[in-house]
O-fucosyltransferase family protein (Solanum stoloniferum), 554 residues
Amino acid sequence: MARTRNSKSSSFISLNPSFFIHLFSLPPFNSLHNYSPRKNSRITQTSPFLSFCFISLLITLTFFAILLITFTTFFQNPLSCTGTSSSSSPLFLDSGFAAASSRSGSVQDEQITLSTGAMVPLPAHGVVGNFSEEEEEFWKQPDNQGYMPCLDFSLKYRKASAKISKEKRKFLVVVASGGLNQQRNQIVDAVVIARILEATLVVPVLQVNHIWGDDSEFSDIFDVEHFKKTLKADVRIVASLPSTHFVSKQTINRDLPFHVSPLWLRARFLKQLNQEGLLILKGLDSKLSKNLPPDLQKLKCKVAFHALRFATPIRELGYQIARRMWIEGPYVAIHLRLEKDVWIRTGCLTGLGRQYDSIISRERDSHPEYLTGKLNMTHAQRQLAGMCPLNASEMARFLKGLGAPISARIYVAGGEPFGGTQAMQHLKNEFPNLLTKHTLAQNGELTPYLEKSSTLAAIDYIVSLSSDVFINSHGGNMGRALEGHRAYVGHRKYIKPNKRMMLPFFEDSSVSEQEFKRIMKKLHRKSQGQPEPRAKKIDRDVIAYPVPECMCKQ
């Protein structure tokens, strides 16, 4: 649990036993200790009365001490269910982020606490103005059912923290690979594994991304000091490996099986850590079990939603761009997965014609290892199975089916679409107010980051987090991260297209437009960001479904 200078780290007061030892060593309490029947008669006659008085005084003091502990515990409440009851307001008003939404100056961070350090969106807009009934329904936020962030770690966890947070002999180094949100997942798991193994975590190493050519380091993307301070009561984190632990040749553990448990990790690595003092892990993506003990689930939420805050320059720019969308009224953010590598990996058709499809087919044939999922499925079978991202034309029809107004301002997150402007034309024709980070940036704000895909993805994340409605076209790490994050900050509207059920109606010309809208709304009425317990399906990640481990009813 994070600590600051002016706040206590726990709901409980720790009393040093030496206090009581010192108390009993002082007169008149030492008379109780020194009393003996073999003393002289004068003392023997007066001691029972004195003993009674002193015991009564001791009981009284103990009673008041218990009252003091209870009083402090009740009012301190550092982590339990903090927030507002409105689903349209952010649960944590981080002073830095609030400043970014109202001015363009630098962000001045206050003391880091869990209530002020969380990444929060700009406030959701209320449904006011000249909206039709259908439009009001589209912009309306889901009922959060009273759920609030609630990271109440157990007493056993907090007791163990005293030792784990001071560990100086065993070190864990983790190499995180992939895109930004894939790296975020691995960083979250790295903290949890360090806690399981009771090791000091070295700030994770971000592997150079060869697909996008991004060589950003951890400190380029994330606020390192905030990361360390927020987690200092859970795991000791250091910027680099001490020289005493450098070795000429160290084994890098790459081949972890999927869904490893805390027991498996301890059995496999604890002996090595104790002997060598160093463990290097690589390739952590989706390797840690999703079904962890409650305290470790809460730790995952603490890392993902509180500790992993973007670096100040990224936060400032991200919220400036978000505010340019927000100030004009409610907006939709959509994550379109139309990049070239996505089409290669999914084995789907681009919808742009034979010329573009043949380019993808040739590259896929030359790199069959890139293809994910079943190899023996046709393009049509993949699409009907929901394995393909929605293209711009399908997304436009989906938005219309949900009742999005034609005048809706739509922020498009994601990389450069394969096919350029042609790939987006259908969506642009139906919804002309289409915007991206590139069209919203001013005075060369993005110029320093044009070759930094992780920074650009972080900006997309911030703008998407602040949107009134978020729609994800094709799963992925960013979609899952935003699904959980939007839930954690008040269950902001999040629509996940039910592609398996809805795509057959896209091809059915006998379905009228009015009937199509009715079907789309019915299919997605229960999947708009309402609280959904993780326990409903096995192996769900708490980062995507923070109820009930990380959120409780007020």
Residues 164 and 198 are 5 Å apart (CA to CA). The first strand starts at residue 147 and ends at 149. The radius of gyration is 28 Å.
